[in-house]
Amino acid sequence: MASLAFSSFMPEFTEFEDMDLVRVAKDPVSVYKEPSDTSQIIRTWVRDDLIHVYGTVNSGTPGYNPIWYRVFGGYMHRARLQKVQVHYNLPLSSVPATKILAELTIPYTQAYRYDKWDGWHSYYRLYYSSTQWITGIDTGPDGRPWYVVQDEADKSLYYYVPAVQLRPIPTDDFAPLSTGVPSGKKRIEVNLITQTLTCFENNNLVFSTAVSTGQLGMETPHGNFNINDKLPARNMSTSSRLADDVIPLVGVPWCSFFTEQGHAFHGTYWHDNFGVPMSHGCVNMRNEDAKWLFRWNTPPASFDEINKQTLDVRGYGTSVDIHY
Description:
Elements (H helix, E strand, L loop, with lengths): L4 E2 L4 E2 L4 E8 L4 E4 L8 E5 L4 E3 L2 E4 L8 E5 L2 E4 L3 E6 L13 E5 L3 E8 L3 E9 L3 E9 L5 E6 L7 E5 L3 E3 L17 E6 L4 E6 L2 E7 L12 E4 L2 E8 L12 E9 L6 E4 L15 E3 L1 H10 L16 E2 L4 E5 L1
Parallel strand pairs: 18-27, 24-25
Antiparallel strand pairs: 1-2, 3-6, 3-10, 4-5, 7-8, 8-9, 11-14, 11-17, 12-13, 14-15, 15-16, 18-19, 19-20, 21-27, 22-23, 22-26, 23-24
């Protein structure tokens, strides 16, 4: 699937797609004849193009991220590619008043809004694995069920997404972990040199992973902090002149904030270059790693503990040590 055909309202996927796919998360990304950025460029893809992956190669270069995908015509470096899938979901018959957290299960979609002056009009573009708060279900512009999604940043604003494209997340999927360990016995460390995050319980290592901290000019602050606010879905933006990513970032998953200035650990759907500084100051993590950290650190943020008005949990939580 090299590109998508569009209907009037949304990307049209004609069948379940179980082959490996990647989405170009930032353009341009080139196809090289060999798995090396010094080899001949065969062609270039732009943001949101979808490409089949036929294999994965560790070429040893570049040293910071030597993984390449074998695609039609050559090889693509994974740094600015997102691995995606196409899965459709059975729409719910109703949505409880408590709202439901959901994740997008297709490469991307276009959210829509409706008003009596402009009718249906496009709004945000949402990406695979982003998280959204469902507040209702209605008939969309195609006559099919669409979920009503509450905007996390402006909670008086709502938009619509085809119901088949969002998977409601069972509450058990993000229930707190290691609840028997006192909060003071948990610790998160981030090494800005090695770009790694490690978690400890009673000084015993329980988790370690590669991360991406702030780029030059947008560095992640170093020092001692504590988790103070947690949101399973967050809309993010920046006014920095140095930022060149897709802004706003809608439905950033599994956010654990550790400064009042807005620095957080969170999932990432716009690059796969962990181990290299890539962020605007936050600590970028693979989605599955950010979800584990969200469940493990304190304050606890089970579904019942999340404030359904503010969509977060605030409190003095797990200690964070960020150092060189």
